[in-house]
Specification:
Radius of gyration: 20 Å
Structural class: alpha+beta
Helix content: 25-40%
Strand content: 15-25%
Number of domains: 2
CATH architecture of the largest domain: Alpha-Beta Complex
Number of strands: 13
Oligomer: single chain
Length: about 350
């Protein structure tokens, strides 16, 4: 067992440092059936005698960090807790199958909270063909804690990793960015119900619908070289692709897709719509790279699946870092977004 005397706190390490610490204190030799461990949207396992690989992801939502009763109703919480896991499966090109739900909850919580939570969970589970197969229920003294583990599957040759980006690849995103952040802004500023015309922004935050069919189609087509879901903001999540692929990226500010409602709200409240789009997070769209020679195929495939073509927003480059091209020139882009253990 590896251990060291260390008086630093987790805040000193930061989220990325904590992950590295955990990784450094376990065996680096993975068994043969683990095809991918820490470092991607899902772990990838290969079972003997089964032609598909098993995709495994888990996410935790904590009251006061990821949600409050002001930002998510119990029903929306049930939906979103499952959606964030579905998004990880979509990012690997897989199909979600089986969920395990663990919930920590205060004993004085009303029964109606759990009933509404499960109603939201079940609505999305039925929509996506997911079965709840187990989990755990515990008492939590101060706040609600929701953990979902989701299993999915995919043929080995269709799995899309973060590590496959190649210099010269186009960067694509499956939908508009920033709506969820704008919706959260409305909720946190007591705009619930939201002003007329902005309901879709709040819905984007509370009930995201990951483009599962598009992710699967991209995996099956072999067109996507690397892929990730946008949970922490495109600037931060693109950094994960570049880190795993050993590349950099150049984004075109004028190509970042943003809804008309996002831009209208940003103008009204004097916020930057581009900041929301780049750093807001929780869009749960897919960000992927593909050969520039396949542009027409990408547009045709995604339009057929979703009815809406994806947006080309930049290029994978050799130069290290994430860069943004604006009318003022080229500037290095900070990751932004929410970072745990960063006080």
């Amino acid at each position: 067992m590896k251990a060291t005397a260390n008086n630093k706190t987790l805040d000193d390490f930061g989220e990325a440092g904590i992950i590295q610490l955990i990784q450094g204190n376990v065996s680096q030799k993975l068994p043969p059936y683990v095809k991918k461990g820490i470092g991607d949207d899902c772990a990838v396992l290969a079972e003997a005698g089964w032609d598909k690989t098993l995709l495994v992801t888990t996410d935790t939502m904590i009251e006061g960090i990821h949600f409050t009763d002001q930002t998510l109703s119990p029903e929306a919480l049930g939906w979103k807790a499952l959606a964030v896991n579905i998004s990880d499966i979509a990012a690997m090109g897989g199909t979600p199958r089986t969920a395990f739900l663990s919930i920590g909850i205060k004993p004085e919580t009303e029964v109606s909270f759990l009933e509404s939570f499960m109603a939201g969970f079940n609505t999305l589970a039925e929509k996506t063909g997911i079965a709840l197969a187990g989990g755990d229920t515990v008492e939590s003294p101060t706040s609600a804690i929701i953990t979902i583990t989701l299993l999915g599957d995919c043929l080995p040759e269709h799995v899309v990793y973060r590590s496959g980006a190649r210099v010269g690849d186009d960067l694509w995103v499956t939908g508009p960015l920033g709506d969820a952040a704008a919706g959260l802004f409305l909720l946190q500023n007591k705009q619930a119900p939201p002003p007329s015309g902005y309901e879709s922004l709040v819905r984007a935050h509370q009930e995201p619908m990951p483009p599962l069919d598009v992710g699967k189609a991209l995996g099956e087509s072999g067109l996507a070289h690397a892929m990730i879901d946008i949970s922490d903001g495109i600037a931060k999540d693109l950094g994960h692709i570049c880190e795993q692929s050993g590349t950099g990226a150049l984004l075109q500010a004028t190509s970042i897709p943003m809804s008309d409602k996002l831009q209208r709200l940003a103008a009204e409240v004097e916020k930057s719509p581009l900041d929301w789009a780049l750093h807001g997070g929780e869009d749960y769209e897919l960000l992927f790279t593909a050969s520039s020679a396949d542009e027409e195929k990408i547009v045709t495939l995604t339009s057929k699946i979703s009815g809406t073509p994806v947006a080309k927003i930049g290029t994978i480059i050799h130069e290290d870092g994430i860069w943004l091209e604006t009318e003022k020139g080229k500037e290095r882009l900070g990751s932004g977004g929410y970072v745990h253990f960063s006080s």
